[in-house]
Design brief:
Blueprint (H helix, E strand, L loop, with lengths): L1 E5 L3 E2 L10 E2 L7 H8 L1 E3 L3 H5 L3 E6 L4 E13 L2 E8 L20 E3 L1
């Protein structure tokens, strides 16, 4: 599993990946919003990311915000954005991740 930890919501700079106005997490966010906020853009190993079946978006406290099946990646300069099928209603959403994010980097492989 590829796990992405996102911090507090902040404005997006021009040219910062997928069309969006903010990135990060805020209370009350839907699974769709969390997936869009967390799926890119990141520096990661493309082959390793594509070898994972799922992506999990978590906040800094370790709460699962969204889970998606990875279907591909898109290149954004020297970074990547995940493409995937959001698994809406996944029972892991809203619960602490069973796989704590131990890396200092926002992207890790579990």
């Amino acid at each position: 599993m590829l796990q992405i930890r996102i911090g507090a919501e902040r404005a997006v700079e021009a040219g910062d990946g997928p069309a969006r106005t903010a990135r990060g997490w805020r209370p009350g966010m839907s699974e769709d919003e969390a997936w869009e906020a967390g799926r890119g853009v990141w520096k990661f190993n493309a082959d390793r990311a594509l070898s994972q079946s799922e992506a999990q978006i978590i906040n800094a406290a370790g709460t699962v915000l969204a889970v998606a099946r990875i279907t591909g990646i898109s290149k954004r300069g020297d970074r990547y954005a995940l493409e995937g099928e959001l698994l809406r209603g996944d029972p892991r959403v809203g619960r602490p991740t069973p796989s704590p994010h131990l890396s200092r980097n926002p992207v890790t492989y579990i």
